From TrEMBL:
Keyword Ligase: yes
Residues found modified as N6-(pyridoxal phosphate)lysine: K242
Protein source organism: Deinococcus marmoris
Domain of life: Bacteria
Official protein name in the record: 8-amino-7-ketopelargonate synthase
Amino acid sequence: MTTSLSGRLSAELSNLRSSGLLIKPRVLDGANRARTRVDGREVVNLASNNYLGFADHPRLKEKAAAYLREWGVGAGAVRTIAGTLRIHEELEQQLAAFKHTGSALVLHSGFTTNQGVLGTLLKEGDLVISDALNHASIIDGLRLTKATKKVYKHADADDLERLLQENETDGLKLVVTDGVFSMDGDLAPLDKLIAVARKYGAVTYVDDAHGSGVMGKDGRGTVHHFGFENADDVIQVGTLSKAWGGVGGYAAGHADLRELLINRARPYLFSTAQPPAVVGGLVAAIEEVQRDPSLMRRLWDNTHYFKAELSRLGFDTMGSVTPITPVLFGEPEAAFEASRLLFEEGVFAVGLGFPTVPRGSARIRNIVTAEHTRADLDQALEAYDKVGRKLKIVG
Ligand SMILES: *Cc1c(COP(=O)(O)O)cnc(C)c1O
C-alpha cells in the first residue's frame, strides 16, 4: 500500500518525540539582543551567535535602511543574469581587503557556501580529508563530490599526516576544518594542520563561521590569528550570519577562486542575489568592527570573565578558549532540565545532547557577546550557581 503523507509525517514525528529529539524552538518577542524577551519572559540571552551585537546595531540598521531606499527590496535576479548590483561587488572588494586575500565572493549563507565551494572544487581522483567534528554543511557539501573522502581525528595533525601518507594521489588534496568548533569552542590547530598539509602539497580549507568577527585583529578570523595571511594554499569560507549580524556566506582566497565559483558554484548560479538591505548591514558591520575597537575588547573581556567565574563556581567549561562556552552536564536530561530552570531564572541558554554532541557530554552552550553588560553576566552566573546546586552539578 502506498504511504500517505499524513502517515509519513506522523511516523517521523513520533520517532523524534519518543527519542526526545523533537525540537520546539523558543520564540523571541523582540530583536536578538543580549537582553530580550523570549516566550513572554525578560531574559539574558546566552543562546545567540550575535558576538558583536550587530544583529540590532544602530549603524548597521542605518546603512541597511539607506541601501533599502536606494537599491530596493530585492536584487531582482540571480547574480549571473541581472542580480549583481554595484553594492554586491563593493562588499566583495571590502571583504577581500579585510581578509587580505586575492579574491572574495559572497554567497547566500554559510551553509550554501560549503556546498558551492566544495561541490565546485573537488573532482573524482581528488582527496579530501575532513576533521571528525566538522559542521553539517561541510558534510553535506562533501556528499556532492566524487573525491575520495577521509576523516581525521578531531584537531589531530598526526592523524591527518597518516591519512595524507596512506592516500597519495595526483589530484587536488584538500584538508577541511572548522576554524572554531561550534560545540566545544576550541580552535583548530591551524599552525600544525597547515604545516602538515603543505608538506604533502595539500590545500587547507577553513570554515571560520564562528571565528570570523571573533578571532584575529578586528575579527579577521582564525587564519589571520595564526598568521597565515595572503596564502594561496588556504581557502577561507564562513558566514556573514553570525558575528556580522546579517545573513550570507563568503569564500575568500586565491585570486582566481572567485571567478571559478561565479561560473560553477550551483547555489550561486541558481539562487537570487542577496537583498540590498542585507548588503548594507554587512558593509557597515565590516566598517564598524574596524572603527570601534571596543567591540572586540568587550567580547573578549566578557568571555574571559564569564569562563573564569563559571570555573570558580565549580562548572566544567570543557577547555573552550573562545566566546563559545559550554557547561558540561553529562546526561541530556540534566542539560535540558538545567536549561529549563535557567530560563525560569531569566537566562536563555540551550541544552544540547546526542546526536548534536557525543554521548555523555550533554551540555549547555553559552555564547558571550560584546553586548552583554557585567550585570547581565552576573545575573547569569547567579542563576547557574542556583541551578547547578539544585541539580547537584556543583557543591
Ligand atoms: C553556522 C555555521 C554555518 C552555516 O552558516 P549560515 O550562514 O548560518 O548558513 C556553516 N559552517 C559552520 C562551521 C557554522 O558554524
